[in-house]
Amino acid sequence: MSESSSIGTNSSSGLGTIQSSQSGSSDYSDISGTTVPLILVTSHRDDTTSKLGSQASFKQLPANRYCYTSWHEVRNAEVKGDQLNCPRIREGPREKERTFYSLRDEDGNPIHHDRKGKKRMDYRNKMENWENAVSVNLSFQDLGDAYQRENFIRVLKRLIRAEELQLMDDSLTDLHSVSLPRCKYLNLSRNFLPSFKKLPRLPVVEHLYLEQNNITSLDGLDVLRKAPLQSLHLRSNPVSFTVNYRQRVFQILPNLKSLDGVKRLPSDSVFDSEEEPSRMCVIC
């Protein structure tokens, strides 16, 4: 991803990546069709402009003043959550709360709206409207702060209509408290999930990507038996290197059509001996 793309994704929001059914299929941020103020398309660190080189158009944009601003907190912003592409969940609530009502722009006007308490929370929930999101990308979140992780789970629990969800490389270990009732495609590759028991509830999932996690056994895989699962990807998990791996997966999921990108083969019904002959390596 280019530096300019990463700036767009880092600053559009304080929360995750959403594409509604009306939005395009791009994985990158595009605010040309929205009313997001250009002041939000900026980095949250002063040294970012030095990395951009000759891209002078970004150098005049304010940065620190807006570093923890979400799109729906800006005065007169009308953008909804399902109109955003690749926003981020970021940390820093304490710093933000100390200055939320005092921040002003170059003309001395308040940056944020003046809603407080319950009105502020209700307005946030209305503008985020994650319930309307159909295609969602919340990958590469770098959830190092407890505030980020809490908001990440909060957003996931609101994705009741999401049919396609990307959660790659988020350092996730447990999503069992989340339910995704309409999700047909879920990509959880490059996380740290230790077991199928830590997956979210997926009653209608058809395509599930779990490559490069830390799944060591097939315990709990049977929870997917009732789902219309067609393809499952488990490459680079410890369990994928065990004896009779493919045969055992297809035995647990008899309706599965493809495993690790390979369609079901006649040999996937034939179990080899569990005991392998010992081998000795002689180094000369």
Summary tags:
alpha/beta; 6 helices; 8 strands; LRR_dom_sf
Give a structural overview.
It is a single chain. The chain has helices at residues 3-11, 48-52, 93-99, 117-128, 146-157, 245-252; strands at residues 18-19, 135-137, 164-166, 185-187, 207-209, 231-233, 258-259, 262-263. The protein has an eight-stranded mixed beta sheet, covered by helices on one side. The protein is of the alpha/beta class and 284 residues long. Strand 6 (231-233), helix 6 (245-252) and strand 7 (258-259) form a beta-alpha-beta unit. It starts with a helix and ends in a 21-residue tail after the last strand. Residues 1-29 are annotated as: Disordered. InterPro entries: Leu-rich_rpt, LRR_dom_sf.
